[in-house]
Amino acid sequence: MSLNQWLCSYRPLCVAYETLRWLWHKIFFFVHTPTPVWYRFDKKHQPGEPVHETLPLDKNWYRICRPLYRHEHVYYDLGKALQVNPQVKGVALIFFMGIGDYLYTTPMLAALKRQFPQLPFYAYVGAQFDRNNSPLVGKLLEENPHFEKVFYFHGTRHPLIWKNYDYQDALKQIPDGFLAVPVYYDYGVQIRHRVSSLFETFSLPVPSEIPAPVMYFPQAQAPAVQEYLARARRGAQGKKGIVFLQLDSRGSNYVYPHMKALGEGLIQAGYFVMSVTKGGPVENPNYLEIDIKKLAINQTWQFLSILKSEFPLYVIAVNSVFWAASAGLHLPNLGLQHWIDKKVHNLWYPNIEVVTDYIYPRLPREKQIFAPPQSYTRHNKKIIDYKPDWVIRWFKEKFEK
Question: What is the DSSP string of 92-119?
Answer without folding.
Answer: EEEE---HHHHHHHHHHHHHHHHH-TTS
